[in-house]
Amino acid sequence: MPSYPSPAAVALDSSVVLADRPDRARIRVVGPDRAKFLHNLTTNEVKARQPGSGCEAFVTSLQGRTLGFVSLLVLDDAILLRTEAAGLGPILPHLRKYGVLEEVELEDDSAATFECHLAGPRAADLLASLGVSSPPGVPYDHAPAEVAGKAMRLVREDPLGAPGYTLIGDSADAPAVLDALARAGASIGLVRIEAEAFDAFRIEAGTPASSRDVTDKNLPQELGRDDRAISFVKGCYLGQETVARLDALGHVNRLIRGLVIEADSPPNPGSKLFAGEKEVGWIGSVAVSERSGRPIALGYVRTSHVAAGSALVVRDAGGGESPATVAAGPMTAGG
User: Fold this and answer.
1) Which residue ranges does the record assign to the Aminomethyltransferase C-terminal domain (predicted)?
2) Where are the domains of the chain?
C-alpha cells in the first residue's frame, strides 16, 4: 500500500521535483501585428510588455466566455502562447479566425519543442549547480539559459504552488536535458514525477487547466485570478464588455474551489455538486492527493456554498454519491 505523504510530496515541499510536460502545446505567434492581435483577444495586457516578460491570460469569446487559459511569453521576434494540448481545440480556430484580419502567423511549435518543469524550494539551487546562477524572479519573466550544453528558455512560473521554473527547448535535446537535471538533483533528493502527480499538485495549488477547468461555460472572474490574468484598464478586447460588467457588479454567481472527496477513488469529471437536493456546481479536474491519499478535485461552486468547510455531495451520472468538503484555499496539506 502507498504511504502518504508520498516521496514526491516530500520532495516538492523540501527539495525539488522534475516533470516532463508532453501534455503542453506551444504556439509561436509572429508578424508585426502579433502584440496587438493577442492584446485584442485576451484578458491581460500584452502590447506594453517587453521581451523577457510574460503573463497569464484567458482567451475570451465575443460573449466574454473563456475559451482557454494560456501563458504568453514575449520574445524579441514572436510571442509564445502556451497551454494544455487538450485545451488547444477551442483556442487555435478562434485565433485563426481573427488572424486573417491581421499581419500575424500562427506556428505550432509543440512537436518541435519540449518543456519540463522544476518545482520546490531547491529548484534554484539545482539550476545554479548547472551554471544558471541568476534565473528570472518575477512570474512569467524568462531568459535564455544553457543546460547540458543545450540552448533553452527558462521561465519563472509556479503552477504547483512551489517556487518553479519551466525549461523550453528543442525536442531533440529533451533526453540530454532531463538526464542532466536528474543527475544534478540526485544529491539533493530530486524526485521525477509523472502526469498524475503533477495534476494532483496542480489541483492542490488551485491552478486550472484548459479543457478540464476552463471551458466556454465559464466567465474569467469565476477562476479567481483577476489580479494575475485580467487587466481592467487595458481598453477594448473581444468579450471585454462582459468582463467589465461583472467587475462593476462586484461578483459572479460561482467560483472555482478545491474539494476533498470522501471516496475510494476520484469522481468522474463533470459530476454534479449538490447541497441537499439543490445543484450548486460541478467537478473539473480530479486526482488522488500525493499528500493524503484522498481524492481531490477542482470544481465550480455557487457563491452561497464556497466557504471553506462547506459540506457538499458529489453525484455522478449513475446516481452514486460521495461527500465532499470545500477546501480552505490551496490544499497544501491535502485538505
Assistant:
1) 256-331
2) 1-249, 253-335
253-335 domain in CATH 2.40.30.110?
A: yes
CA distance 196 to 286: 10
Task: Please check whether residue 163 is in contact with residue 209, taking contact to mean a CB–CB distance below 8 angstroms.
Answer: no
Q: Do the domains 1-249 and 253-335 sit in the same CATH topology, yes or no?
A: no
State pLDDT tens for residues 119-141: 999 999 999 999 998 899 999 99
Return the sign of the alpha-carbon dihedral for residues 257, 258, 261, 265.
positive
Pick the CATH number of 1-249 from 1.10.720.60, 3.90.1150.10, 3.40.50.720, 3.30.1360.120: 3.30.1360.120
- pTM higher than 0.90: yes
Q: What angle do CA 178, 91, 117 make, to 5 degrees?
A: 15
pLDDT tens-digit series, residues 177-199: 999 999 999 999 999 999 999 99
Per the listing, cell 484580419 goes with 101
CA pair distance 82, 325, nearest whole angstrom = 32
Are 59 and 118 a contacting pair, CB within 8 Å?
Answer: no
**Dihedral of alpha carbons 253, 259, 265, 269, sign:** positive
DSSP letter at 207? Answer: -
89 pLDDT higher than 80: yes
Q: Is 203 exposed, middle or buried (0-12, 13-18, 19+ CB in 10 A)?
A: buried
Peptide bond into 5 cis (omega under 30): yes
DSSP 251-280: --SEEEEEEEE-SSSPPPTT-EEEETTEEE
